[in-house]
Amino acid sequence: MGDITTTTTVSTGDRWGVPVVGLVGEVDMVCEVPARAALVEQLDRRPAGLVLDLTAVDFFGSTGIRLLVEACGRAERHGTAIAVATSRRAVLRTLEMTLVDELVDVHPTVPDALEALRAAGVPFPRQPAACR
């Protein structure tokens, strides 16, 4: 049997001053360290809100759940609101089965997640005319 290699990309950026951490591919043990580092780095800046972009995730298992729950705990301690962006069945089903969907707001797209943060009163450092 050959080695199975998964490719996961971790990116950070911002939309209107709100940090966005994006994961692409499979969220598993291979990407755990860089994904956690990106989330911790952004949350330790203590932003008012953060979006976790999972719109291009193909697999989201126990590692993904652990990362998200840890991020939610850190965010709560820092007073940061988190919104997750995804419409991927692989992610949604795992969030539903573990009831983590009750811990965090989930929206189908990054613009929807940003709009939800804004509607919840999260201040945007750079105000967009609209989040779309």
Summarize it.
This protein is of the alpha/beta class and 132 residues long. 36% of the residues lie in helices and 29% in strands.
β content, as a range? 25-35%
Biggest beta sheet summary: 5 strands, mixed
Count of DSSP H/I helices: 4
- Uncertain parts: 1-5
Record field, number of beta strands? 5
Mean pLDDT: 91
Query: In which order are the strands of the major sheet placed?
Result: 1-2-3-4-5
Secondary-structure element series: EEHEHEHEH
Query: In one word, what is the shape?
Result: globular
The level of helicity is 25-40%
What is the terminal-to-terminal distance? 47 Å
Highlighted features:
132 residues; alpha/beta; 4 helices; 5 strands; 36% helix; disordered N terminus
